[in-house]
Amino acid sequence: MQASFWHEKWDAQQIGFHLDAVNPLLVRYWPQLNLEPSSRVFVPLCGKTLDMCFLAEQGHEVLGCELNELAVQQFYQENNLPVTLETIGEHQRFATEQVTIYQGDIFTLCADEIAAVTAFYDRAALIAWPEEMRQAYAKRLAKLIPASSIGLLITLDYPQAELNGPPFAVSDDWVNANLSDDFEIECLASADVLADNPRFVKKQVSWLTESVYKLTRKA
């Protein structure tokens, strides 16, 4: 997938992946990570998610990375947050109290910028990549995240042949086969959510499973 795909989606505001509320799975399962409120949390491919506001409300300093500049601008505007802007390498760094977003390609984000993070949250990043690009993203995330960092990963799985992504289907087998070299993996929950997703129902997808994982970056 080219960067232009996502820029076109944001320009047209075709952002069905964006939730207008905090993800209830984040609210339910984040406490199970047992993080200190002072923990810094990395949110890859963050868009303008309100989940960053929730994390900040828990006391965390949030560091996001987002390709599209409009998404970043809308996050700060829609939440009435004053923002400062500076250029850091190939990225623009938007910052306000507790929430900093690096606007640019995650593959060129300097690890030094997020070296102090101890946690991460991936709700719509891993599932945004098609199969042929997903492993490269997973390896990039592992490279950016310091050892012992703890994260929450949310995935969707369904018969990929029945619907074109994104979001793309990511199975439990894929998670264990491709993330286990870099992360300790614990599945916290897995549930049938087809009835709650009209797009999948309309496209006659036969089943849809949402899973929540706790990931710990290996040393």
In brief, what are we looking at here?
By secondary structure, the protein is of the alpha/beta class.
Q: Helicity, in percent?
A: 25-40%
Radius of gyration: 17 Å
- Uncertain segments are none
Which outline best applies?
globular
Give, in order, the helices and strands: HHEHEHEEEEHEHEHE
What class do helices, strands and sheet pairing give? alpha/beta
Core attributes:
219 residues; alpha/beta; 9-stranded mixed beta sheet; 7 helices; 9 strands; 27% helix; 26% strand
Structural notes for this entry:
The chain is of the alpha/beta class and 219 residues long. It is built from seven helices and nine strands. The protein has helices at 3-11, 24-29, 51-57, 69-78, 131-144, 172-179, 198-202; strands at residues 40-44, 61-66, 84-88, 91-96, 99-103, 119-122, 150-157, 183-192, 209-217. Strands 3-4-5-2-1-6-7-9-8 form a nine-stranded mixed β-sheet, sandwiched between helices. Strand 3 (84-88) and strand 4 (91-96) form a beta hairpin. The longest helix is centred in the middle third of the chain and has 14 residues, at 131-144. The protein is globular. 35% of the residues are buried.
Task: Outline the fold blueprint.
Elements: H1 3-11, H2 24-29, E1 40-44, H3 51-57, E2 61-66, H4 69-78, E3 84-88, E4 91-96, E5 99-103, E6 119-122, H5 131-144, E7 150-157, H6 172-179, E8 183-192, H7 198-202, E9 209-217
